[in-house]
Automatic annotation (TrEMBL):
InterPro entries: AB_hydrolase_fold, CocE/Ser_esterase, FrsA_esterase, Galactose-bd-like_sf, Xaa-Pro-like_dom, Xaa-Pro_dipept_C. Keywords: Hydrolase, Signal. It comes from Streptomyces qinglanensis. GO terms for molecular function: carboxylic ester hydrolase activity; dipeptidyl-peptidase activity. Residues 1-32 form the signal peptide. Residues 511-530 are annotated as: Disordered. It holds the Pfam family Peptidase_S15. Belongs to the AB hydrolase superfamily. This is Putative hydrolase, CocE/NonD family. Gene3D superfamilies: alpha/beta hydrolase, Galactose-binding domain-like. Residues 312-522 form the Xaa-Pro dipeptidyl-peptidase C-terminal domain.
Length: 530
């Protein structure tokens, strides 16, 4: 069942209101200033930089105290493209800290947003070319060292930085925070459109910038779940995915730090973890509690922030050559959503040292199109509540309607279960229709029956023979969560979740079984800190 045009417009309007209320699209930008020589010390100078195709990119430049534009090229350079929908002053607090510690820093408003020219290309070839143009400008107008160049940023800035690292070998270090490596894996996982995430991006793009005709067409087809355009949408996304250029990124050899939040509702963590494992050069992966860009938010306000302090250490090591210990620490650093300090691992694969298996026996039959009450929450809001209040989406498991939700529960565990990594679901599905969608949720269930969401994921199928069973293997979103002693795990599968699209036709019914030759099961990775 495809979303109606009215529902898409309503969702976009609501998301636009949410965006404005959270301040992501309402921050003011500085007035345009004519291009001039950057001023020394840690006050920004607003300059114009010519981007690809002759457009104007609005930028800020900060120099170290005492630096002279006519001096020798003695300072490392850091380039920071802005996040989606944010103005060019986004990084001022962090740029000032970097300049005070001896960097030339150029931040610029990504093309198509605010006062920068051009159209929003969503990490397309023109965005990649812009990054190189900004580097060219900095080398021509500041005392930046051409052999010590870094890029970084949050969200959109992170994605552009990773893409640029695959196209410009001058980039020696990258800090990509709350970004994406695989755009399709991020917002089309399980072959299911992440409607709230896409609607949020589309609405904020319209509010703060000028989307390209191509982007508007892609979003229209994506939000309408137009399967006839699926191949076109996937090709568009792959062109804008750093994972597509992995070999070039590895060949260029930049030292890459990736950071993300467990509950990122726009760019879930799985795609970053997969990308990290395939990098060959110096690398670091950090996951923390929170939602999209919330782990970095306090740092953007100039407050103490682990993400940004680690990013500065990363640049110091690989652009200044400082022996500050970050290269000898365990390269994978995690914080559990349940609290506690950092847990270090030698690789993503070593995060999980064991597993618990929950059999999914019996036969469960579901009527589709009816909400059971189990869902993944609301874009941005859910992760923030989990980050600051330890309050994930809740359900009361005993009252979940079994006609709308398939439920399996484990026994009570006698010891704490540290969930670490990517939970996998294997089951056999039968549908009376060729297409369908369901959502799998894993809950931590307390003694009174209240379930706290640990992780979830959507799954959509097409072109199946009605009435014929087929196996499904589904990866849920990676996480770190501690299930207390005396609690149990519960798997809940239903067919309605406002976060996502769904393809269940009217009258569709789903059946979940566990054949003797291929038992259905949930495998929960377990581990702990080092």
């Amino acid at each position: 069942m495809r979303p109606s045009p009215t529902s898409v417009r309503t969702a976009s309007a609501l998301l636009a209101g949410t965006l404005a209320a959270t301040g992501l699209a309402a921050a003011p930008t500085a007035a345009a200033q004519p291009a001039r020589t950057p001023a020394a010390a840690s006050l920004p100078d607003f300059v114009d930089i010519e981007g690809a195709g002759g457009i104007t990119l609005k930028a800020n430049v900060l120099l170290p105290a005492g630096a002279s534009t006519g001096g020798t090229r003695q300072y490392p350079l850091i380039v920071l493209p802005t996040s989606w929908a944010t103005p060019q002053i986004e990084y001022f607090a962090q740029a000032r800290k970097l300049a005070d510690s001896g960097y030339v820093v150029v931040t610029y408003n990504s093309r198509g947003f605010w006062q920068s020219g051009g159209r929003i290309e969503t990490g397309g070839p023109k965005d990649i070319a812009d990054a190189s143009r900004v580097i060219d400008w900095a080398l021509a107008h500041t005392p930046a060292d051409e052999d010590r160049i870094g890029m970084g940023g949050v969200s959109y800035g992170a994605g552009i930085s990773l893409l640029a690292a695959g196209h410009d070998p001058r980039i020696k270090a990258v800090t990509a925070l709350s970004g994406w490596a695989d755009l399709i894996g991020a917002i089309y996982s399980g072959r299911t459109q992440h409607l709230q995430a896409a609607g949020l991006l589309g609405a904020s793009g319209e509010l703060t910038g000028r989307p390209s005709a191509e982007l508007r067409e892609i979003l229209k087809n994506f939000l309408a779940s137009d399967l006839d355009k699926e191949d076109e949408m996937i090709a568009w996304g792959k062109k804008r995915s750093p994972a597509t250029y992995l070999d070039r990124i590895n060949d260029n050899g930049a030292a890459i730090m990736l950071g993300n939040a467990w509950n990122d509702s726009i760019f879930p963590p799985n795609q970053y973890a997969d990308f990290y494992e395939k990098l060959r050069g110096p690398k670091r992966l950090e996951f923390r509690p929170g939602d999209h860009a919330t782990a970095e938010a306090t740092g953007l306000l100039g407050l103490p922030n682990d993400t940004w302090s680690h990013a500065r250490r990363w640049f110091d090591r690989y652009l200044k050559g400082e022996r500050n210990g970050i290269a000898t620490e365990a390269p994978v650093q995690l914080k559990s959503r349940s609290g506690g300090g950092y847990e270090g691992f030698a690789s993503w694969q070593e995060v999980s040292t064991g597993s618990r298996t929950l059999p999914l026996g019996g036969t469960k039959k579901l009527a589709t199109g009816k909400d059971s009450g189990a869902n993944g929450g609301t874009v941005l809001l859910t992760g923030v509540l989990d980050q600051f209040l330890k309050l994930p989406p809740l359900v009361y498991v005993p009252l979940l309607p079994r006609s709308r939700a398939a439920v399996w529960q484990s026994e009570r565990y006698r010891e704490k279960t540290a969930v670490r990594g990517t939970t996998t679901l294997h089951t056999t599905v039968t549908s009376n229709k060729a297409s369908g969608t369901y959502y799998a949720h894993l809950y931590d269930v307390g003694p009174l029956g209240t379930g706290r969401l640990i992780t979830h994921a959507p799954y959509t199928f097409h072109d199946r023979t009605p009435g014929k069973p087929f196996p499904v293997d589904l990866e849920l979103f990676s996480t770190a969560y501690d299930v207390p002693r005396g609690h149990r795990l519960a798997v809940v599968i239903d067919t309605v979740d406002p976060l996502y699209a769904e393809y269940n036709p009217d009258g569709a019914r789903l059946e979940f079984t566990s054949p003797a030759h291929d038992p259905s099961r949930l495998t929960v990775p377990t581990g702990g800190g080092r």
